């Protein structure tokens, strides 16, 4: 009886959709990497700005569990709902935003044979799903009924128009080379040569567009703390505020998983340990992908300490007049490579 | 007299793409340098203490044996923080109220017997108004001895040409 129950639970957890959304690279992994990334961001900024960063909670390990303390505080804090907000969309926006920013995971495989849903165009589906969360951001801005929120939402909607195209064009620049829109196949084609070497132009454009999409410096325009308090999330408090802070980090992590699959060779170098199917086909590739995504994310949080914040017109001008062209050049470069390969 | 109109537009620097890329690379390299070898100018306050140089105007300490009860300190005090109190038969002793004291140091300067001195620390927290009055025995305790014992690391601040302030451990 008990044995069959444990087997049942194990089967449910190892069922790919559940495993992907809950464990890796889903909720559990993302929460852990969130703790790590936010701590690293504060620590890096501290070191570069000639101070210590978080330290007081656990001096022995450099304040690494500071975020746990912060989370506890958010959970115990009262959630104040202002009288003038549209209550239902106001409550839905951060919660749905957090969940939806996790959703692309449903189309991102992190192992060659164990994927969440078998599909042949997973890159397109994943990219389509990453475009959803900003809508919730704008919804939060609209529902908050506050001018700072509204300005933040307006800035976010300007930025979406700028970065979304660059993300998709540079992803297509990689897809053209692999000749497939399936992550599994794209990764297996990168066995010897990673995408970042084949098409560095698209990789750089993708990287910058992700910086812009997830509000990292110097594109932290939609939540510019010194100008518009917290952008669209000005009116939030308590756990809802914690969730809304997590959205941009979750999006960054998901984008970086996509980045490492498209350009950094995914789970390559791939090796197996004989006799351990679960370890060699799920655990090792997942660890490799997540480590790559974490390293890319760390370089992204590193920019906070170095750049100032651009004005919205500077960011939009840079995106449309420069990075858009770079993405198109990357696309042309990818097509040319494919053409040359076919001719020769 | 009308003011003069000043064009407050900074001309664009018009850097070439190569120059921009170079500037970005320089900024990133500088950040990486600081990340690997941080030059911290802050210190961990409650664990590490900074001890100021001689002449720092900290809390005031009375040497009861030297004081002759002349009341000059109470008279000079610009904030009326120093007051004389009866301490036994025909004996006057000063007491200080830190609610009023502005740490000007006049009382220390004027004392003919050098009975007052500044401690080299400022770090006190008061829980109530009464505890801010230092009278009798309490006024004669040197707060430095309490702070310099205990498990703190003592730092001294030094001005460096390259970095600004530096905190150097002296114990
Ligand atoms: S330091 Fe100045 S204000 Fe304080 S007790 Fe002495 S004379 Fe008065
Ligand atoms: S001036 Fe000096 S000697 Fe005179 S009462 Fe004050 S502490 Fe005592």
Automatic annotation (TrEMBL), chain A:
Cellular localization per UniProt: Membrane
Transmembrane segments: 20-40, 90-111, 123-145, 157-181, 193-213, 253-271, 277-302, 322-340
GO cellular component, one term: membrane
Gene Ontology process terms (BP): aerobic respiration
InterPro entries (UniProt xref): NADH_UbQ_OxRdtase_su1/FPO
Listed EC numbers: 1.6.5.11
Enzyme class: oxidoreductase
Keywords associated with the record: Membrane, Oxidoreductase, Transmembrane, Transmembrane helix
Main location: membrane
Gene Ontology molecular function terms on file: NADH dehydrogenase activity
PANTHER family reported for this sequence: NADH DEHYDROGENASE SUBUNIT 1 (PTHR11432), NADH-UBIQUINONE OXIDOREDUCTASE CHAIN 1 (PTHR11432:SF3)
Protein name in the entry: NADH-quinone oxidoreductase subunit NuoH
Species of origin: Fervidicoccus fontis
Gene: nuoH
From TrEMBL, chain B:
Keyword Iron included in the entry's annotation: yes
PROSITE patterns (UniProt xref): 4FE4S_FER_1, 4FE4S_FER_2
Name of one Pfam family that matches: Fer4_7
Alphabetical UniProt keywords: 4Fe-4S, Iron, Iron-sulfur, Metal-binding, Repeat
Gene3D superfamilies on file: 3.30.70.3270
InterPro entries hit by this protein: 4Fe4S_Fe-S-bd, 4Fe4S_Fe_S_CS, NADH_quinone_OxRdtase_chainI
GO cellular component: membrane
Limits of the 4Fe-4S ferredoxin-type domain: 58-87, 92-121
UniProt keyword Magnesium, yes or no: no
Chain segments annotated as coiled-coil in the UniProt record: none
BP term (GO), one: aerobic respiration
First and last residue of the signal peptide: none
GO molecular function: 4 iron, 4 sulfur cluster binding; metal ion binding; NADH dehydrogenase activity
Name of this chain's protein: NADH-quinone oxidoreductase subunit I
Organism this protein belongs to: Fervidicoccus fontis
